[in-house]
Amino acid sequence: MSFKSSWKEECGVFGIWNHPEAAKLTYLGLYALQHRGQESAGIVTLDTTDSKQLHRVHKGLGLVPDVFNESILQGLPGSAAIGHVRYATTGGNLIANAQPLTSNLLSGPLAVAHNGNIVNSSILREALQREGAIFQGTNDTEILLHLLAKNPSNHLVSALKESLKDLTGAYSLVILAHDRMIAARDPLGFRPLVLGQIKTSMSVSYVVASETCALDLIGAQFVREIEPGEILEISSEGILSEHLPALENRGSRKSAQCVFEHVYFSRPDSVVFGKSVYNSRKRFGEELALESPVEADIVIPVPDSGVPSAIGYSQKSGIPFEFGIIRNHYIGRTFIQPSQSVRDIGVKIKLNPQPDVLKGKRVIVIDDSLVRGTTSQNIINLIRQAGAKEVHLRIASPPTTGPCYYGVDTPQKSQLIASHQSLENIRQFIGADSLAYLSDAGMWKALKSGPESFCAACFNGDYPTSLKGVENKKNKENTSPKNI
Ligand code: SF4
Fold first, then answer.
1. In this predicted structure, what is the pLDDT of residue 339?
2. How many Å apart are CA 482 and CA 484, to the nearest integer?
3. What local confidence, expressed as pLDDT, does residue 478 receive?
4. Nearest C-alpha to atom 7 of ligand 1 is from which residue?
5. Which of these is catalytic: 11, 213, 455, 458?
6. Which domains does the chain have, with CATH numbers?
7. Which burial class, exposed, middle or buried, applies to 252 when counting CB atoms under 10 A from its CB (0-12, 13-18, 19+)?
8. Which protein residues touch ligand 1 with a CB less than 6 Å away?
9. What is the pLDDT confidence band of residue 5, given thresholds at 50, 70 and 90?
């Protein structure tokens, strides 16, 4: 993915049922999903070696390999596990917010891993607190645990169905109980969730993951997507599927799958919402070449997420593709920055332009999206310093004009440059010779789909749910270190 200072991934979830190395495969699954969250990681296993079927838990702040090692994984026995990697969309980067969240309900131990964001969580939280609920952290997922705890049914799926009806927003969930694993997706299906399996002659293991790249790594076969609104129950008795009631007032909208998963979040080697992310990005580039051609010598990507779109642009336009900027993949999360004398270090530490490729050239630069404009400004500046004669920026998605309320950490609307500046003003600000975005129509054409199946609210302002509670939530979270 490219170097975005202000548009962060959400979370990744993983679950496995009936495998002798459940913790190790969950570790690998989380490794494959690391791009979806780098602030905390956690695994909960169902210890089937213990007659009490207890949950074993390990969570920590940092990257997956920082949080786990061989001996920690050995301390997580059992044939079922769920895991989570987190970017703090709600509630700040506290260990209390690291997932999976665990609790002991009347029905037994329960662990929950959640990707998404509950729009009305501030309203639900306040109502629960008035009834006496005590919250450990500040994230949305704890609300679901409280709703489940107070539900009178001792049938977990019935209680879950009832509880989920109160939630508005985005959730892809993996839940581990003492005798079953449950996967669920909100009725509009904002975030991806897929089912896979590992079959041997003796047994079948079931796997649930945010993206298919996690299945690939552990050698699991893709079975199908968990459908929007589906609750899938996996136990020793097999698999049962139920659906939440369809939402009222959804009009012609079939689902609201996040189109930004194809633009930027998901890995290009994943198949998301039934489509190859790599192919989508390549086709965005092809459409962009048709819509906004310009005479130039080379096409270069902003690595990594700009690469497939730059290949598409190059192939469609016939202008040669080059790696004009090399990305350093080995930087840690923090580095010591000199206070003076080294300019543009924030960008240079990740992206290094190649004068041998760029000098004297008319360059088309392809990036996946443009948020505040400051990163593009820095990149264009570096490309010019490397000797480029002209720099033409092409963005492989429409202008981002609104924030996300469904699990993606975005700047406020006022900080999204396209929400209040004309194309020409943005061009001048970033210092490009020309600037063009992919059109809405071009994006749908490339996806071979339409807005009735997707959420594209950050591009078109058409939010698929009520936003009641959002203002409350923002005001409360303004006291925490990270806000949506
Ligand atoms: S608002 Fe944008 S980022 Fe958020 S779910 Fe919709 S398309 Fe995805």
1. 62
2. 7
3. 39
4. 456
5. 11
6. 11-250 (3.60.20.10), 262-463 (3.40.50.2020)
7. exposed
8. 190, 258-260, 404, 406, 408, 455-458
9. very low
